[in-house]
Structures are given as C-alpha cells and as structure tokens.
C-alpha cells in the first residue's frame, strides 16, 4: 500500500513546475489525479505521463479566476473517480518583480490577485463544498515564503501569497471538526520555468537567489511535491492550518 491508494486528487496549475511534479508524485503514491491548467496542452502532457507510468489521470482546461470553470473541474473529478479526497491549489502567476510598489502597474496587481488569490478562493469554495458533502478531505494551497516575509519589488505577489496563508488558516479552523484539513506550503526560490525566466531576464538573479538561501541552491520541484503528498495523505492526520516552509533556511536568517 502507498500513501494515496484508492484516493483521488486534483491539482491546478499542473501543466509544469510544482504543479506537474505534485500531480506525478500523487499518482506515484497511488492517487487517481485530475490534472488541471489554463494550458490545456500542458495539462494533457502531464496526464499522459501519469498514464504512461501506469497511473490514472484525466486532463482539464480550467481558468481558476472563473468560478464556473472551477466548479466544473471539481464535478469532473468526482464524475471520473467517484470522489475527491485531496486538492492542491497551485495555479499562480508572478506578476512583475521589477518595480517598487509606487511604480507598479495597477493592472498587474489586479491580474496577480485574480489568479493567486481569487483563484484559490474559488477552488476552496468548490472543494470544501464537495468534501463537506462527502465527509472529509485534505487541501493544500501552494503559497510562498513571500506569504510569510516581505519580498523586494514584489508587492503584488507578496500580498497575494500572504492572503493565501490567511485563507488557509481560516479554512482550517472552520472545517477542523468536519474532517477536512487545510494546509499551505511556502517554498523559497524553486527551479521552475517561472524562476528560470527571471534568471534569464537578469543574469545576476541566480547568484542573488542562491546567496539568499543558506543551503546555497534552489529548491527542486520534487522536494516540494514530496511535501504535497505528505500533507495530502493520512501521514499528516494531525496537521491543519499549517504553513509548511521549504526554503533551505531562508526565513531562519
């Protein structure tokens, strides 16, 4: 028996990066996985990788900023697998890391909050309603160390991730006695396409990131995914309302 045998999960933003790694890890742990992303082709590729490894998966195109899309995603997961045991709300965007707050564009702020905050809000509402009706479940929201500390020239992103941590704690308290656990993961700089794009735009960025982390390296998506599986599984049965930091020591400084 593996940690998620007989269970089903959905992962948003699963076309690449932490989302893809989490979907693959959950499938390897035994879960049937709904792979969701606004990038439908990327979601289909992730799902195909799960199928190629002998797992069970479906792929969906979903815009988490739209409540109707999210409701349809949850319904499709239940229709395909008969249940929803775990959900990983990972879909997110970075916005701009180039400007201080007074210089930042209002439309960038709105875009970041639409995906990173409103998207998690929509997902939580639909997932919690389904899990409440079914008698329980686990939810993991992917936040960031920027949800715990200030990040320079990233006011919109930082605000959105602080809000995700707050939503996580409130939901955890509301549903703790109802069989639903809600936690967050707060990674530091992780080797994803989003981070590599930032590095390409500024050749010094890799050095800055590595110097900021006491371990002296970026996190790996596989390391984040293992934490996702643990929080989704019964191995973490007494953990709720927690913001789990995976940061190579960054916030300990």
Strand line-up in the sheet with most strands:
3-2-1-4-5-6-7
The helix-strand sequence is EHEHEHEHEHEHHHE
- In whole angstroms, the N-to-C terminal distance is 40 Å
For the biggest sheet, the summary is: 7 strands, parallel
- Shape verdict: globular
Give the number of helices: 8
Helix content: 40-55%
Structural class: alpha/beta
Q: Which value, in Å, is the CA radius of gyration?
A: 17 Å
Portion of residues in beta strands equals: 5-15%
Mean pLDDT: 95
Provide the low-confidence segments as ranges.
none
The beta-strand count equals: 7
What would you note in describing this structure?
This protein has 253 residues and is an alpha/beta fold. The chain is built from eight helices and seven strands; from the N terminus they run E-H-E-H-E-H-E-H-E-H-E-H-H-H-E. The protein has helices spanning 17-28, 40-52, 67-81, 106-134, 155-175, 193-201, 205-212, 221-232; strands at 8-11, 32-37, 57-61, 86-89, 137-142, 180-187, 243-246. A seven-stranded parallel β-sheet has the order 3-2-1-4-5-6-7, sandwiched between helices. It is globular and about 50 Å long. The mean pLDDT is 95.
In a few lines, what is going on in this structure?
Helices cover 47% and strands 15% of the residues. The protein has helices spanning 17-28, 40-52, 67-81, 106-134, 155-175, 193-201, 205-212, 221-232; strands at residues 8-11, 32-37, 57-61, 86-89, 137-142, 180-187, 243-246.
Question: Which SSEs are present, and which pair or pack?
Answer:
Blueprint: E1 8-11, H1 17-28, E2 32-37, H2 40-52, E3 57-61, H3 67-81, E4 86-89, H4 106-134, E5 137-142, H5 155-175, E6 180-187, H6 193-201, H7 205-212, H8 221-232, E7 243-246
Helix pairs in contact: 1-2, 1-8, 3-4, 4-5
């Amino acid at each position: 028996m593996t940690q998620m045998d007989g269970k089903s999960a959905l992962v948003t933003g699963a076309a690449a990066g932490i989302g893809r790694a989490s979907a693959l890890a959950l499938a390897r742990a035994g879960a049937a996985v709904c792979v969701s992303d606004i990038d439908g082709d990327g979601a289909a590729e992730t799902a195909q990788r799960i199928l190629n490894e002998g797992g069970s998966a479906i792929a969906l195109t979903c815009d988490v900023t739209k409540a109707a899309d999210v409701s349809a995603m949850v319904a499709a997961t239940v229709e395909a697998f008969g249940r929803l045991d775990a959900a990983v709300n990972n879909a997110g965007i970075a916005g701009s890391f180039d400007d201080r707050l007074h210089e930042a564009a209002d439309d960038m702020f709105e875009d970041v909050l639409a995906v990173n905050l409103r998207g998690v809000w929509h997902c939580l509402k639909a997932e919690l309603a389904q899990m409440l009706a079914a008698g329980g479940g686990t939810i993991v929201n992917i936040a960031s160390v920027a949800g715990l500390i200030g990040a320079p020239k990233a006011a919109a992103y930082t605000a959105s991730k602080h809000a995700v941590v707050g939503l996580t704690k409130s939901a955890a308290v509301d549903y703790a006695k109802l069989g639903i656990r809600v936690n967050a993961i707060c990674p530091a700089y992780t080797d994803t396409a989003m981070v590599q794009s930032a590095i390409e735009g500024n050749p010094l960025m890799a050095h800055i990131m590595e110097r900021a982390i006491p371990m002296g390296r970026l996190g790996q998506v596989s390391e984040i995914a293992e934490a996702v599986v643990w929080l989704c599984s019964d191995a973490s049965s007494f953990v709720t309302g927690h913001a789990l930091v995976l940061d190579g020591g960054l916030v300990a400084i």
